[in-house]
């Protein structure tokens, strides 16, 4: 049995991340494999202009959400790499609200963002699939909080599931 099929214990991640962990029932790798199809179904038929839609003033656009998902996946996968390889150096946090405005997301095409998405997702899956049971159980510190590789494997698809839900519930209804 894969060590990733056992959900992380609450002590393996900061309470904030429970929002994401609880969204993943079953194999987190299967969730990561399924999400690209879900994302493409949600975006099907949207124009480039609709990609800049914000459901309220001060909220990110659809494209900004997508690039935020990519940034976050890269950072969480990097954390998993470092911790999985036994690096005990505390890892810094990141401020998403600083990243998004300078990402240039709204000037990018959906095709370009989705090509990058595919590359990032393939790299994330390769990394997680290669971890041994010992690596999955390793714990480290990120953003001043404990986190295990197992927890990161659930947080990664959970974070995306959260944003897919936002697209369904807040963004797409505003485009009709």
Automatic annotation (TrEMBL):
Domain of life: Bacteria
Residues annotated as domain DinB-like: 31-166
Annotated transmembrane regions: none
InterPro entries, alphabetized: DinB-like, DinB/YfiT-like
Protein name, entry field: DinB family protein
Biological classification of the source: Bacteria, Pseudomonadati, Bacteroidota, Cytophagia, Cytophagales
